Amino acid sequence: MKIHEYQAKEIFASYGIPVDKSIVCRTVDDAVKAYEMLDSQKVIVKAQVLTGGRGKAGGVKLAKDEMEMRKHTADILGMDIKGFVVDRVLIGQAVNIASEYYVSYIVDRSTKSTIMMLSKEGGMDIEEVARTTPEKIHKFVIDPMIGVPDYLAREAAFKLFDDINLVNQAVPIFQNLYKLFVEKDASLAEINPLVLTAEGKIMAIDAKMTFDDNALYRHPKIAALFEPTEEEKKEKNAKSKGFSYVNLGGEIGCMVNGAGLAMATMDMIKLYGGNPANFLDIGGSSNPTKVIEAMKLLLSDKNVKVVLINIFGGITRCDDVANGLLEAFNQIQTDIPIVIRLTGTNEKEGRALLQGTKFNVAETMGEAGKKAVELAR
Amino acid sequence: MSILINKDTRLIVQGITGRDGSFHATKMKAYGTNVVGGTSPGKAGENVEGIPVFNTVKDAVNETNANTSVIFVPAKFAKDAILEAADSGIKLIVCITEGVPTLDVVEAYHFVKSKGAQLIGPNCPGLISPEESMVGIMPTMIFKKGGTGVISRSGTLTYEVVYNLTASGMGQSTAIGVGGDPVVGLYYQELLEMFENDPETDSIALIGEIGGDAEERAAAYIKEHITKPVAVFIAGQQAPPGKQMGHAGAIISSGSGTAAEKIAAFEAVGVPVAKEPSEIPELLRSRIKK
Q1: By the number of CB atoms within 10 A of the CB, which of A30, A124, B20, B70 ranks highest?
Q2: Of residues B24, B110, B225, B247, which has the active-site annotation?
Q3: Which of 3.40.50.300, 3.40.50.261, 3.40.250.10, 3.40.50.720 would CATH assign to domain B139-285?
């Protein structure tokens, strides 16, 4: 789950990480009030959207006086950045930047650890830096049993600064950023850029955080910050019923048990020349209630012309699955053709139960895929 | 032969009195797995289908000499269960639970490692050495003893591949679901090495998916260290970037972790990649040295 810059800065500040003084505003009037409170001639106006690339889209502007600030705020509010409409801007005191740095913590899959990443190439697209000049990124693997002791934070800080006074300023920032990363179950805590001001002060002038969805249950205050898009609302609704759902925009609706098999099913549809409408994992069991709910979800997508059901009957036997499907489809009225592929334990019995019904029964995944693509034409 | 589990496996089930724990404990026992006990704090003295229940893993290990544990506790207790197993001397810990916070796994993994034990999962279906032992939730009927080692990030897709292998007369030495989370225990490299060293394994099926770069690293490892034939299937070619596809770890982030990159990495080292799961048996069969 992502949160806005201004929300991440509030968390940073509560952990003692210096941030620029800024105020979130929803209207130009708010911005004028904020401008007075900030008491700074120059301010920066930044769009608050849950996507990257806002700078390139024109969502970040420096204003040299109140008039410019009004204009930029008016321009940015309502702006569409990659499908996100800006309804909030952050007005911040302009900082005299001497140099910019990058620092973040993420969970690294290969070391199965949290790692700290640092670079002198602050303010840039860090993925681009990693691709073109990987030697400019320093990585430190954190042992979860000891965290970030002083020596390690110092070692890291010396990668960015030569002056011991600056190193001593950076050390608690690195340690506190790790502390909040762990305590809030983040999957990313990033400062880009971390700046050294002309006055010699180190501070975060941007803040980015994403959180581990699996850990939100122990962070209700963070969970409450979730601002789902229309698509995410649909996905969240599906999740509450035990499904994983992602819309893909094609015409063949898929209902599959298991995430890997569900991905393989949509790939196969493409392989045979069709377009999957969605990814849908209905989970281990396939009882009638679940099938009915899943069908409702698929049929709510008006692009769907054919539904392909691909079930691997493992612990749940295929004959039970088939009876469940028959029961479910007694309650669903639809003219959309349905292809069913059942494999696993008692598959012959399962398929026999479905023969002579309105379903198109397939034996293999390939056969089911071809049939569904044909029917969608 | 097989890897990790066999006839000598002495298994305890953590969370044995829960709905999933008791159901699968019974299934594992019925398959012939040596299930020697289970744990559920406060329920010592009870039994589940004849399997004795203990309060703690230490009690269970002391009484039964268990060497392997499988975990069926809810996500918020999974880290504690892994720590308890490792601290009690269990050497192979298999965590089935889905939805465990990533940083819990990070901590638990490092603790397990410090105890000289091994972790499989979480968010995995477990593993099976056909006709010897099954630890987890796999549908045993589709497996057959044989020479193909199977490593997978997924559950039902593993079954799909195994089903195709068995149907074409190719049995399995051991099949392992490593788990669908970003951070899990044993992974491709360690398991490839075990299968390479297992005399009964004559070929390896590797089932990957989008997210991370473990497949790319596996391809590099195969090139350097694996002499047995390997065939691969990668799920998620149609997955859009930035969307989690069911598994917490199956996500293309910042344009990396795509199926195309993974497929290219295997093809670059001469490992064949199946277009659909049903092609795996033939890709292996044609390469197994007679």
Answers
A1: B70
A2: B247
A3: 3.40.50.261
A210 bridge partner residues? A2, A188
Which residues are CB-contacts of A236 (< 8 A; sequence separation ≥ 6)? A228
Residues in chain B: 290
Place of tokens 């979480």: B122
Residues 75-104 of B with CB under 8 A from A: 75-76, 99-104
Handedness of CA A29, A32, A36, A38 (dihedral sign): positive
Domain B11-120 and domain B139-285 have a common topology: yes
pLDDT tens track of chain A, all 377 residues? 999 999 999 999 999 999 999 999 999 999 999 999 998 999 999 999 999 889 889 999 999 999 999 999 999 999 999 999 999 999 999 999 999 999 999 999 999 999 999 999 998 788 888 889 999 999 999 999 999 999 999 999 999 999 999 999 999 999 999 999 999 999 999 999 999 999 999 999 999 999 999 999 999 999 999 999 888 888 888 888 889 999 999 999 999 999 999 999 999 999 999 999 999 998 866 677 888 888 888 988 999 999 999 998 877 778 888 888 888 888 888 889 999 999 887 888 888 898 888 889 998 999 999 999 999 98
Residues 165-224 of B with CB under 8 A from A: 180, 182-183, 207, 209-210, 212-214, 217
B235 close contact with A: CB closer than 8 A: yes
Sign of the four-CA dihedral B115, B121, B122, B127: negative
Beta carbons of B155 and A260 less than 8 Å apart? yes
C-alpha distance from A88 to closest chain B C-alpha (Å): 23
**In this structure, what token pair is assigned to residue B30?**
């019925």
Which chain A residue is nearest to residue B211, measuring alpha carbons?
Answer: A109
Residue A164 C-alpha, separation from nearest chain B C-alpha, in angstroms: 32
- Measure the CA–CA gap between B99 and B30, rounded to whole angstroms: 28
Q: Which CATH class is domain B11-120?
A: alpha beta
- Sign, Cα dihedral of A328, A330, A333, A338: positive
- B161-B260-A107 Cα angle (round to 5): 90
Sequence-ordered list of residues with C-beta below 8 angstroms from that of A140, at least 6 positions apart, any chain: A115, A116, A118, A152, A155, A156
- 3 state DSSP class of B275: coil
Name which of A114, A144, A312 is nearest B160 (Cβ-Cβ). A312
Nearest by CB to residue A345, choosing from B99, B106, B141, is B141
Predicted complex ipTM: 0.91
Å between B24 CA and nearest CA of chain A: 10
Beta bridge pairs of residue B230? B204
CB-based contact A185 B102, cutoff 8 Å: yes
Separation in Å, CA of A70 to nearest CA in chain B: 34
- Element (DSSP H or E) covering residue B68: strand B68-71
Q: Could you tell me the strand order of the sheet in which A43-47 lies? A: A22-25, A89-93, A43-47, A60-63
Told to judge if B24 belongs to the known catalytic residues of this protein, a careful annotator would answer no
CA-based nearest residue in chain B for residue A342 = B160
